[in-house]
Write a structure and sequence with these properties.
The protein has helices spanning 15-21, 41-54, 98-105, 133-141, 145-153, 163-179, and strands at residues 62-68, 74-84, 89-94, 108-115, 120-130, 188-193, 197-202, 210-217, 220-226. With 228 residues, it is α+β, with helices and mostly antiparallel strands. The longest helix has 17 residues, at 163-179. The structure holds flavin mononucleotide (FMN). Flavin mononucleotide (FMN) binds next to strand 2, strand 3 and helix 3.
């Protein structure tokens, strides 16, 4: 079935002009010599993360997690990276929400991070594994009381009829957490993206971007450059 091509409207609200006037990958960006990159991606990720922190990037540990639903339709959201080690890239969420259900059905995901001040993007893709209950519980108990209360409701991504209902339920959850500080939300899950592909992308103001992709076979990583 052929689909009609979308046509672009008049720029009535001025958004097109606004967007096209915004700079990107401008200014002084660091260099990246892929010839000196380590043999595996975790070490390089750690180096880039440290440099992002030193450069004052806000929330350098935020990444976009992309998942797909049973129809293969994608959805993406920002979340916080909890750890990176030889197993992979770790994040935590409830298993009861949209991403949790999508991951239960298709246990694969992509994580994308962008550190604008450095013009650096990192892309990670791989199968996703939930950690065991004990490890997930430890992550939950390490969260702030407010974050634990919201997670205890285990209603993430459900339609909310009105904000007063949220306030009432949170009051109940906060009270329960105060009375039972060791209480763990049963759906809270630490997940790991066991990366099979990790790409490091260094932007260049002249658009000669450097792309280095690591691909894993078993426990061996291979590196290759990609055209920008
Ligand atoms: C900076 C930032 C950090 C976030 N961290 C998390 C997180 O660690 N875990 C989480 O479940 N949601 C986090 N969220 C909320 C998610 O973006 C999202 O709204 C939520 O997980 C529901 O997604 P879902 O409906 O696709 O399951 C964060 C949002 C932002 C903007």
């Amino acid at each position: 079935m052929s689909q009609e091509s979308p046509t672009i409207s008049q720029d009535a609200g001025g958004l097109r002009a606004l967007l096209r006037g915004l700079p990107s990958l401008a200014g002084d960006l660091p260099g990246f010599d892929p010839g000196r990159a380590p043999a595996e991606p975790v070490a390089l990720f750690g180096r880039w993360l440290t440099e992002a922190i030193e450069a004052g990037v806000a929330e350098p540990h935020a990444m976009t997690l992309s998942t797909v639903d049973p129809r293969g339709l994608p959805s993406a959201r920002v979340l916080i990276l909890k750890d990176v080690d030889a197993t992979g890239w770790w994040f935590a969420s409830t298993s009861a929400g949209r991403k949790g259900k999508e991951l239960a059905n298709t246990p694969w995901a992509a994580l994308t991070g962008y550190w604008a001040a450095l013009g650096r993007q990192v892309r990670v893709r791989g199968p996703v594994h939930p950690a065991g209950a004990e490890v997930s519980a430890r992550d939950y108990l390490g969260r702030s009381a407010g974050a634990r209360a919201v997670a205890l409701l285990a209603r993430q991504s459900e339609p909310l009829a009105d904000l007063a209902e949220l306030a009432a339920e949170l009051e109940w959850a906060e009270d329960r957490i105060t009375r039972e500080p060791e209480l763990v939300a049963p759906d809270w899950t630490l997940y790991v993206v066991a990366a099979e592909e990790v790409e490091f992308w260094q932007g260049d103001p002249r658009r000669r971007h450097t792309r280095l992709r690591y691909t894993r076979t078993g426990s061996t990583w291979t590196k290759e450059l990609l055209w920008p």
